[in-house]
Amino acid sequence: MGDCALGNGKKKGCLIFGAHFYQLGFVLKIFTIVGARPQFIKASVVSRAIKKSECIDEVVLHTGQHFDQNMSDVFFEQLNIPRPDVRLDVNGGSHGEMTGRMLIEIERAIKDYAPDRVLVYGDTNSTLAGALAAAKLHVPVAHVEAGLRSFNMNMPEEINRILTDQLSDLLCCPTDAAVQNLNNEGFDSKPAKVLKVGDVMQDSALLFSKFALPPQGLGGQSNYVLATLHRAENTDDIGRLSSIVQALNAIHKNVAEVILPLHPRTRAAISDQGLDLDVKIIDPVGYFEMLWLLRNCGLVLTDSGGVQKEAFFFGKPCVTMRDETEWVELIEVGANVLVGADRDAIIEHVQLNIGRIVKDELSLYGGGKASGEIVRHLQG
Ligand code: UDP
């Protein structure tokens, strides 16, 4: 055992993981940057693991990219995430404008807090702005969910994740495919550390599934289709959006009830385009309600990244309304199928798969140990 000499919250009894940092008795200051719904969920489990470490203090910055009760606050309340130390209010506007405003304010905050390391998650504008601000100030960056690729540069997320990986020195990959992607980009001969740690979303699904609770007004449903829809490639393309809306309506009418917690971006796009969506629409739900919906559904129909995996964690088949996925292993094991925005393909694959039970025979995502692994490597 070593002894942490500094007085900023964590004082003594830290384990020595071989890093001279600890042998000298310092407390590592991690500056976590989050801003969007999936990042709150991912950070919740890593923050818990950090809290258990005697040698890391965490400062949390929320960019404000998602900001209202049901896209942000509910996750902090349910998942008991530390209240952000810094709360920005950067949302709306174009990608460049949003990222630029975040960059200015995150740089200021990093200078104020002088962290030892910045920790970013996923692939949003908050991720890129955080990594860029840190790298320019020579603060090392750790990226959780490193190495994921869709190979579609039209996706803003793909640009964000490629650039963030380039700026990071600790790349925490969820899967073998992610490690392979980085090796293909030459990371195996760079000084940056590339690690397969598993998927933090599996940690959170396992940790919180006992708190699953039905969304208001729901309760006895089963074997329904749980749908989510928010990717810009679908919401911003009238042809794709209209085809998906037609498929959802047909499934709801002829196959099974479709329950759709509707993302604000999609709600606005459907209304702007005057489309008639006739399924069970509910407001975006909290994480506990989402876990209940996942547990009780017969199939997941989505264009989300994270929800594809969550379907798998709950043994549900997934039909993905995209042309490619970063989670290629789910396609390989037959748990997930890509149908793009093709109306007939969406209906056909929902009919074929609903009610099927999916098994995780290969422990594809690490089995709930990712956050512990990440913290171990942050320390070492
Ligand atoms: N989610 C939620 N409530 C909802 C819809 C999604 O809690 O109404 C959760 C979902 O369970 C997953 C995360 O939000 O953990 C995924 O976020 P999203 O689909 O917005 O982003 P992506 O994963 O595509 O980046």
From TrEMBL:
<dbReference type="GO" id="GO:0016853">
    <property type="term" value="F:isomerase activity"/>
</dbReference>
<comment type="similarity">
    <text>Belongs to the UDP-N-acetylglucosamine 2-epimerase family.</text>
</comment>
<protein>
    <submittedName>
        <fullName>UDP-GlcNAc3NAcA epimerase</fullName>
    </submittedName>
</protein>
<dbReference type="Pfam" id="PF02350">
    <property type="entry name" value="Epimerase_2"/>
</dbReference>
<feature type="domain" description="UDP-N-acetylglucosamine 2-epimerase">
    <location>
        <begin position="49"/>
        <end position="378"/>
    </location>
</feature>
<keyword id="KW-0413">Isomerase</keyword>
<dbReference type="InterPro" id="IPR003331">
    <property type="entry name" value="UDP_GlcNAc_Epimerase_2_dom"/>
</dbReference>
<dbReference type="InterPro" id="IPR029767">
    <property type="entry name" value="WecB-like"/>
</dbReference>
